Amino acid sequence: MEALRKQLLELCAIPSVSGFEDEFGAMVESMIRDRVDSVERDVLGNIIACKRGYGEHPRRLLFDAHIDQIGLMISGIEENGILRFTQVGGINQLTLYGKRVKIYGRTEVTGIIGTKPPHLASDDDKKAEPVHELFIDAGYRNRREAARKVGVGDVVLVDYYSDALTGDHVTSSGLDNKAGVFTLVSAAELLSRVRHYHDVFLLFAVQEEVGLRGARVGGFTAQPEVAVVCDVTFADPGEGTIEVKTGKGPVIGRGPNYYPPLVKRIGELARREDIPVQEEVEPSPGGTDAYFLQITRSGVYTAGLYVPLRYMHSPVEIINVKDMYRASRLLVLLSQEQDLLGEGQ
């Protein structure tokens, strides 16, 4: 597990805000290129790799993970050098107050998101402000000085630490969905060692956090018959309302977004190989790339296999490396099964 954690932390060090995934995508491409038969990028920046199977009648089996993360973007520079910003994806403003940030402009710039001292704050000031009313202070004296280093449209991430915790846990920002990405990277490594039946396509999709946009395009390019989406899902560290826990195995989704025989087959493989899994009910489609992949072209048999994640969309997300490895094993096992969807399918 130590080697897996090290590789994951390397991925976490590279920013990948929606629409600005090129650097991160290049690293992912370098990690899988020698393990697949082909790899290409489309106009949006999706990475689509293929590993041909050895079966007599293989299906087009797609594994998907989105490579983007939520972030911020500079929206204006005040006369006094203060930087205004907006959000890219679903930001919780409560996680922003008093934080250090990194601005990725002409050079990398450090700033802080300012907050009024409690000594000076009125009762109204203590209420959560909307993101567009917050600001970044990087120490600039005026707009002219700031504009030499920072421009409108530059992306921003809350500064964070990536580190290994106890019990095979890792904390970082952007584990939604670098955990899913690493699951596919690990699966590519395992696939290179086995003779799998089906043609496996790996879709590393862009811009999920701003509308599932990459999967909508990538699904048309790959033209899968069967798809499994690898993302993260909510996990509860204690005994709260969420039953999913980190370290207890990947999560199989159930609901109208997922094809029951395919869901059943994944569960059977987990039981056969003694791989612990969890389940969750999703009565309404729409939260992951599975939404668009299921309705691509004339329809795709779709399933969701998710890594439990604590503190989603915050700078201190936590996952368990074992859950990712177990998910990657299940993907490889599925690729080796001649009958993916049940007898007669």
Describe, in plain words, how this protein is organized in 3D.
Helices cover 26% and strands 26% of the residues. The protein has 345 residues and is of the alpha+beta class. It folds into two domains: 2-69 and 173-336, Zn peptidases (Aminopeptidase), CATH 3.40.630; 71-158, Elongation Factor Tu (Ef-tu), domain 3 (Beta Barrel). The strands form three sheets. Strands 1-2-12-3-13-16-14-15 form an eight-stranded mixed β-sheet, with helices on both faces. The protein has a six-stranded antiparallel beta barrel with strand order 4-5-8-7-6-9. The longest helix is centred in the middle third of the chain and has 17 residues, at 175-191. It is globular, with a radius of gyration of 21 Å. The model has no long low-confidence stretch (mean pLDDT 93).
SSE inventory with pairings:
Blueprint: H1 2-12, H2 22-32, E1 38-41, E2 47-51, E3 60-66, E4 71-77, E5 83-88, E6 100-104, E7 108-113, E8 135-137, H3 143-147, E9 155-158, E10 163-164, E11 169-172, H4 175-191, E12 199-205, H5 213-222, E13 226-234, E14 251-254, H6 260-272, E15 278-281, H7 290-294, E16 301-309, E17 317-320, H8 321-336
Parallel strand pairs: 3-12, 3-13, 13-16, 14-15
Antiparallel strand pairs: 1-2, 2-12, 4-5, 4-9, 5-8, 6-7, 6-9, 7-8, 10-11, 11-17, 14-16
